[in-house]
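Q: what sequence does this backbone want?
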């Protein structure tokens, strides 16, 4: 039985582009994609993101997602992307990813400044862990990482958020 992609809704979601004091972006490697557990040069990398719970607004959701996925919400919101960005899953993931109930996601992206210490970032506070490794990446280098089919979204969001990719206070 094939699933009619057009009949499926988009899942409401938030994305967090977390900048440190040097203007670098936190990128984390997914545990459910090929390359996880291997060298840092392998795997699929992304910013923290996740669904918006019923009764939750996007601002609340992005802070909750930070806590769930990276173990800390030591951050302040600097800005948000002006529109929602929707993407479709690749055909081979329809009916499998996102519980099989969605054709893709519609995302509200936020730029945040990390106010904690690197030691506050803990990938083991939520099980199963979504990420097995994280790193601070200069904004210009994000395009060199494997972000999978989400590359157009990262490029679009970074155009808007590039102003935050400089040292805090600069």
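A:
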């Amino acid at each position: 039985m094939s699933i009619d992609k057009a009949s499926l809704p988009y899942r409401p979601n938030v994305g967090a582009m977390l900048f440190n004091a040097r203007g670098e972006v936190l990128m984390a490697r997914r545990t459910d994609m090929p390359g996880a557990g291997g060298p840092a040069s392998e795997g699929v990398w992304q910013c923290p993101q996740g669904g918006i719970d019923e009764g939750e607004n996007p601002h609340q959701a992005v802070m909750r997602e930070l806590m769930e996925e990276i173990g800390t919400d030591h951050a302040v919101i600097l800005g948000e992307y002006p529109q929602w960005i929707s993407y479709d899953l690749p055909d081979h993931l329809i009916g499998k990813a996102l519980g099989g109930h969605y054709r893709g996601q519609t995302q509200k992206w936020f730029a945040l400044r990390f106010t904690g210490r690197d030691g506050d970032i803990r990938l083991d506070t939520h099980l199963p862990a979504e990420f097995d490794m994280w790193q601070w990446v200069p904004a210009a280098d994000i395009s060199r990482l494997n972000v999978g089919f989400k590359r157009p979204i990262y490029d679009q969001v970074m155009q808007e958020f590039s102003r935050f990719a400089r040292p805090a206070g600069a």
